[in-house]
Amino acid sequence: MATIPSTMQAITVVNPGKDSSLAFEQRPVPQPSAEQLLVKVAAAGVNRADLMQRRGLYPPPEGESDVLGLEVAGIVVATGPQHKSWLGKAVFGLVPGGGYAEYAVIQANHAMTVPVGYSMSEAAATAEVFLTAFQLLCSIGNVKAGHRVLIHAGASGVGTAAIQLATALGAHVAATASNDDKLVVCKALGAEVLINYKTTAFEQVLASKWANGLNIILDPVAGEYINREMPLLAMDGKIIIYAMMGGRELPALDLTPLFKRRGQLICSTLRNRSNRYKANLVQAFNHTFAQQLAQRTIQPVLQQDFNWQQVEQAHQLMTANATAGKLVLTF
């Protein structure tokens, strides 16, 4: 095993807020605790949460690294005493922060083995979006075969993962996206109803197509979408909000449509969940989907990888909403 240096380069945020910038900074290499693995990072996923953290809107959980990056793939180079069997293995998984660096620590029970044939970039594009989608659809949504599911931002990282998981579980999927090219991606992944939200009111299409209503709506927009979604629900349907791209404040909200349908309005995050929760989520995801992931019947949609020195270009591309699938930094 190669000697581990004492310091590493990491990407840090300067002046968090609307005028933030990124810097390359020397940091100490983190030391794994008894329950952690130290990974020599080969690739790190880029997520919209990283943009939010740059703006000062999504700080890391207390005690975690302030370095950006919520998922990595790489080689295990050091471990706690009970996890030596991981040494030298290629792994990927969630980290609560610190992914944009040459080394990162990951909880041993959050790590997953990189499937045979996957590149490190593909592996780094997998954990955040598939575990988020699995949590939303399965842990919270309790999706069943035959359910009708609306996935907003269908061509996003989480959207592309959610379409695949919902389809694999036998649900019927509607997806929204900002242009027809993105809808082509959604259709290829299994979406049946395709809605360009720039040109069409999604609620009109869905009220016509699925008169019996929607069982689950995955909403990263919030804002004025909530009022438009509530009348679309089937009885006992759920609107699950996992981001607030449309704003954190709602227009005047009439709850009557929600009561009529015994509907649920649920807000969900993943980053600030406990280590035990995340370990259980990883175990449940692997139990349900590891084989399909290995066989590529579900797989990450990787739009582009960037050398990590080009991180600003990756962030600008995501900010422009010009992505279909995932962006990844390679080290």
Would you kindly provide a written description of the structure presented here, covering whatever features stand out?
There is one protein chain. The protein is of the alpha/beta class and 331 residues long. The chain folds into 2 domains: 7-126 and 271-330, Medium-chain alcohol dehydrogenases, catalytic domain (Quinone Oxidoreductase, Chain A, domain 1); 131-267, Rossmann fold, CATH 3.40.50. Helices cover 29% and strands 28% of the residues. The chain contains 10 helices and 15 strands. The protein has helices spanning 48-54, 120-124, 127-140, 157-168, 180-189, 202-209, 225-229, 256-260, 275-295, 311-319, and strands at 7-14, 21-28, 36-46, 71-79, 90-94, 103-107, 112-113, 148-151, 172-177, 193-196, 214-219, 233-241, 264-267, 302-307, 326-330. Strands 3, 4, 5, 6, 7, 14 and 15 form a 7-stranded mixed beta sheet that branches. A 6-stranded parallel beta sheet has the order 10-9-8-11-12-13, sandwiched between helices. A two-stranded antiparallel ribbon has the order 1-2. β14 (302-307), α10 and β15 form a beta-alpha-beta unit. The relative contact order is 0.14. This is NAD(P)H-quinone oxidoreductase. It comes from Rheinheimera baltica. Pfam families: ADH_N, ADH_zinc_N. InterPro entries: ADH-like_C, ADH-like_N, ER, GroES-like_sf, NAD(P)-bd_dom_sf, Quinone_OxRdtase_PIG3.
